[in-house]
Amino acid sequence: MGFNIAIDGPAGAGKSTIARQVAKKLNFIYIDTGAMYRAMGVYFTRNQTDLADEEAVKKVCDTVEIKLTYEQGVQLIWLNGENVSEVIRTKEAGNMASACAAVPVVREKLVELQKKLAQTSDIVMDGRDIGTVVLPEADVKVYLTASVDVRAERRFKEYQEKGLTAVLEDVKKEVAQRDYNDMHRAVSPLCQAEDAVLVDTSDMNIDQAADAILKLVNTCR
Ligand code: DC
Question: Tens of pLDDT along 29-47?
Fold first, then answer.
């Protein structure tokens, strides 16, 4: 069993950027579990699978191949042999990921894959249920968050940088809606594990947040 760092929190808290930086500093592997739900979401959309059709969803889960590889430390995500690392980064893919993440059989499939990945290496894994469900025995657990306003502003800037048009108020509503969906679904809702340390990044930059996590790691190693 490797050394496991679990980072959970809502969309826009900076999880992936911060987790990636922590992993790089420690020379650990970074596993972005949201990317897996996004890849599944892309597959369901392309195949027009009705998420309410349990049998159809199960069939997809039994046959679909989701794989992670690393190129110079950058995670690539593969869907049935296709590199979907870019395709999964749209707003629609995010919404579809949130929708399919509420389906138990989808979670079962991805949680199993995530547990396997954590067994063999030292990893930093981020998501919504890592400290609570995927790696309840993780060596370090962090619940990373920030206010809705700050997270919406970050998302809004990301859209602008990508040349996408967006209205800040709409982005705020989107972020709040995604929080609601992720926190209120019946299976593995987003919540802070009892033994997770809360890190609020509202007034922190990436380096400060990564340093706060690295300090926690140092106290446990
Ligand atoms: O972190 P992200 O925005 O890439 O995640 C996309 C969606 O996937 C998010 O709305 C909730 C879901 N998700 C999840 O339910 N469990 C995880 N471990 C990771 C993501």
Answer: 999 999 999 999 999 999 9
Quick one: which atom of ligand 1 is closest to the CA of 101?
A: 15
Q: Which atom of ligand 1 is nearest to the CA of 11?
A: 3
Q: Could you tell me which residues are beta bridge partners of residue 66?
A: 79
**The model's pTM:** 0.94
11 ligand 1 Cβ < 6 A = yes
CA angle 149, 102, 57 (to 5 degrees): 140
**Model confidence pLDDT, tens digit, residues 109-158:** 999 999 999 998 999 999 999 999 999 999 999 999 999 999 999 999 98
Give me the residue label for tokens 């990436």.
Answer: 206
Burial class (CB in 10 A: 0-12, 13-18, 19+), 176: middle
pLDDT at 1: 74
SS3 sequence of 170-218:
HHHHHHHHHHHHHHHCCCCCCCCCCCCEEEECCCCCHHHHHHHHHHHHH
Give every CB contact of residue 158 below 8 A, 6+ residues apart in sequence.
none
Report the separation in Å between the CA atom of 1 and the middle of ligand 1, taken as the mean of its atom positions: 25
Whole-number Å distance, alpha carbon 62 to ligand 1 midpoint, is 20
Q: Is the CB of 34 under 6 A from ligand 1?
A: yes
CA nearest ligand 1 atom 6, residue: 34
Longest Cα separation, the chain: 48
